[in-house]
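User: Fold this one for me? It's AFG1-like ATPase.
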Amino acid sequence: MLSIAKRDVPFDVTAAFDLLIPPSRFNNTRFDNYFPNPNYESQSLAKKVTSEFILTKTKRPRRTVIGSLGLKAQPKPGKGLYLDGGFGVGKTHLLGSMWQACTVPKAFISFVDLVNVVGAFGFEASVEKLSELSFLAIDEFELDDPGDTVLISNLLNRIIRRGVDIATTSNTLPDKLGQGRFAADDFLREIQGLAAHFEVLTIDGPDYRATEFHIEDEPRSSDDLVTMAASMPNQSAVSSDSLFGLLEALTRLHPIMYSRLLEGLALVIVTEAKTIDSLAAGLRFVTFTDRAYEHGIPIMIGDTSLNGLFSASILSSGYRKKFGRALSRLSQLRDEGERVVAPI
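Assistant: Here's what I get for AFG1-like ATPase.
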């Protein structure tokens, strides 16, 4: 059993563009294995619209010929598709399916990683690199930070004018569902000049994790988790760190390297957990959780319940949507961890 808090992961700026493919959890997402909930017609419609969007993309030329002799070609502006909905309705599955079905130059990246990539590479270099694409899929577009929103909106405005089609997802807060499509309204307002290029597609339905997994949980002790994990045959694939030690390690590492921190692991154990009161620490842990979720690496947390992991002030902050998603994902990762340490 190892400590990832003690791992030496040097910053490698060239690694940033290695992230432009779907993470392992979404390797097998296809339109054929997206099964709409029959009680929500919008899910069937979303499957139809997203598949047609990609089919059209593969047939549509990127450039429009100007002039009778065809001597001058100008980029044809790209199109945008925004998937709006609550947690766990299959938005990322559909986004991954679009990427898998796309046959032209393409990339898949989360909003947070895209912000980090631009920060690492620089704005103009990122524009040039992403303009080589024909299709860009952005998961979990976030409006929490005005600076990040402006940065990415400007970036997308540049590349969409160069003919890049964009599809992105975001979450409507559970308490806002049915109230004027809160997230979609915010998205269109914040991207301003880009809004005319985007079609909004709303996907209704419950969070599938709410029926398959349980956020209400009795905490296991750290000692119990370590004892359970000690029975796993490959101890080099198991990490065990205190929550404080892990959070401290995350402060020393650029977020684009969090995936490298998790390489080779089959289970992450977090011991001696207490309520996280610091917003900055909470946001780093959310990013770490997202990377673990995307790569299918279970996280088991000892000594506190998921409901007690983040303080009330954090959960009511402007980033509450991000923390809500993290708790939904942590509930799934915890249950997947139970199956890893005690396989059926």
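One thing worth pointing out: The radius of gyration is 21 Å.
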